Amino acid sequence: MKDAVNNTGPFSTPRAGDTLGLAASLRLHWPEYLMEAGEISLFMFCTCSFTTLLQHPASPVRHFFVSSVVRRALMGLAIGATVTALIMSPWGKQSGGHINPSMTFAFYRLGKLRPWDALFYGIAQFSGATIGVALATFLLRGAPGDGTVRYAVTTPGMYGAAVAFAAELAISFILMITVLLVTNHERLAQYAPYFVGSLYAVNITFETPLSGMSMNPARTFGPAAYGGYWHTLWIYFIAPTAGMLAAAEIFLRIRRGVAPCCAKLHHANDERCIFHHTPQFPKRFTQAARGKSVQPSPRGWSRNLKEAQEALPSPTSERELTLRICKNFGDL
Fold first, then answer.
1. Domain span at residue 157?
2. Same domain membership, residue 25 and residue 174
3. 6: in domain
4. pLDDT, tens digit, for every residue of 29-48?
5. Mean pLDDT of the region 68-97
6. DSSP per residue over 159-171, as a string?
7. What's the count of helices (H) and strands (E) in the chain, helices before strands?
């Protein structure tokens, strides 16, 4: 049970029966649920605050920066920095820093989350987003409710719902495929928070006129719940989820069925991890399994590469290769 709750090793894998029920999930993983709720609350508080600062008619910043493009660029930089900071915060390092139900669901599809964890993450994210908007409205004395701010709501732009849907689908796909490729790249993984923050900054600057730039059902739900903007909510529930699920499928095809290592956006830390892990192997393992001549790792191996090659009877898929290599080489 302890191993199922606290997967701390970078190459640990789920074991048979590694399933927690509703009560056990709440008892053991409630810190991660609260952290995820707290992160998206802060995210929405900052989103409403920055939007008020840049758009409210009483704000001197709005009058100083007359160009809407400049204001969007400033908003992008502010939100991008916020997202990066949240992912790299102690809470983000432990919970994974998703702050997005669509991303959580995509990781669930990839086998990284247990069912109850995925459900409670989603509940925490939607609840946290609503709390963040309410907190900003209270502390800013109702300013986010002004017609120029509208609680930082996301709605289709001048080109209509169809274009907004397509735009949300595209940017959500790009975000998720970037997360998967970067977090599973040996050298780039440590920079994943900066990749995510940069995408937020670019999308807010250039995509906002098309759909309002959401990529996140909870981010849209919070302002909609507080301000009553329900008429196009379906776009921001379906498009981001479909885009991220499509990215997950493409990622699996690129990797020939090998799942990502973990569901954390920043895994190089000492915080506990409640997600399922998949072993990740350097290219020399795959080359060795295919019979190619490979130099032993400078860290040393417990078995001779040649013996391992002879033990592998012509595997036909990348997934089978990695599983057989894991069996022959043991923990790395």
1. 20-254
2. yes
3. no
4. 999 999 999 999 999 999 99
5. 97
6. T-HHHHHHHHHHH
7. 15, 0
